[in-house]
């Protein structure tokens, strides 16, 4: 009888040990780095460029949003590295991001939504559009009206949207609008 009790105790102990993952319960969220890419026409209306976004890091102060665009030939034509703290600090003050967990969720949401259809502007500038005080390069704006090339916009904060497009004349990606 004693051997049976000892055997059952050992089996029960083994069962509990196997079901325990050895981790303490915490409020930590499961986080996976974001890594997305997508093909869209941008620097050439007849060929596709590759847009890529990658969010790396575990904590907001370590996180970086890497955004690149490569043309159809594989040449990198745009690269922006945005610090997680920059995005968190420049957001709407009414959004409560005092907790690290909320900051991580916020940054992941930005990365996940980076390539939403609303951010791809086809064309970048409509022929009837007029440049205004938010147009840093009026010549590029007029060039885009004529070329019909597409644009892309992304947010750096509550009041800061960056609009970029390919300049055929200068053979590089430039900001053509910077606004709210």
Describe the structure.
By secondary structure, the chain is an alpha+beta fold. It is 27% helix and 31% strand. The chain is built from 4 helices and 8 strands. A hairpin with an 8-residue loop joins strand 1 (34-40) and strand 2. The longest helix is centred in the first third of the chain and has 18 residues, at 2-19. It starts with a helix and ends with a strand.
Topology at a glance:
Blueprint: H1 2-19, E1 34-40, E2 49-56, E3 64-70, E4 76-83, H2 84-89, H3 100-113, E5 120-121, H4 138-147, E6 151-157, E7 160-167, E8 172-179
Antiparallel strand pairs: 1-2, 2-3, 3-4, 5-6, 6-7, 7-8
DSSP summary, beta strand count: 8
Instruction: Output the strand order for the largest sheet.
Output: 1-2-3-4
Distance between the termini: 79 Å
What does the oligomeric state look like here?
Answer: single chain
State Rg. Answer: 25 Å
Secondary-structure element order, N to C: HEEEEHHEHEEE
For the largest beta-sheet, the strand count, sense and barrel status come to:
4 strands, antiparallel
Q: How much β-strand is present in the residues?
A: 25-35%
* Secondary-structure class: alpha+beta
The tally of helices reads: 4
Percent helix: 25-40%
What keywords describe this structure?
180 residues; alpha+beta; four-stranded antiparallel beta sheet; 4 helices; globular; disordered N terminus
């Amino acid at each position: 009888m004693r051997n049976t009790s000892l055997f059952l105790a050992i089996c029960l102990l083994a069962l509990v040990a196997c079901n325990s993952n050895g981790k303490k319960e915490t409020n930590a969220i499961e986080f996976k780095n974001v890594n997305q890419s997508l093909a869209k026409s941008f620097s050439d209306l007849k060929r596709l460029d590759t847009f890529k976004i990658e969010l790396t890091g575990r904590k907001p102060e370590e996180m970086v949003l890497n955004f690149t665009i490569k043309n159809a030939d594989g040449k990198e034509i745009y690269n922006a590295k945005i610090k997680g703290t920059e995005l968190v600090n420049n957001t709407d003050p009414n959004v409560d991001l005092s907790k690290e967990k909320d900051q991580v969720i916020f940054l992941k949401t930005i990365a996940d939504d980076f390539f939403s259809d609303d951010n791809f502007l086809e064309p970048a500038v409509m022929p009837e559009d007029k440049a205004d005080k938010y147009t840093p390069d009026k010549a590029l704006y007029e060039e885009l009206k004529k070329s019909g090339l597409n644009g892309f916009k992304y947010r750096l904060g509550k009041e800061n949207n960056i609009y970029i497009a390919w300049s055929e004349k200068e053979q590089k990606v430039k900001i053509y609008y910077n606004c709210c």
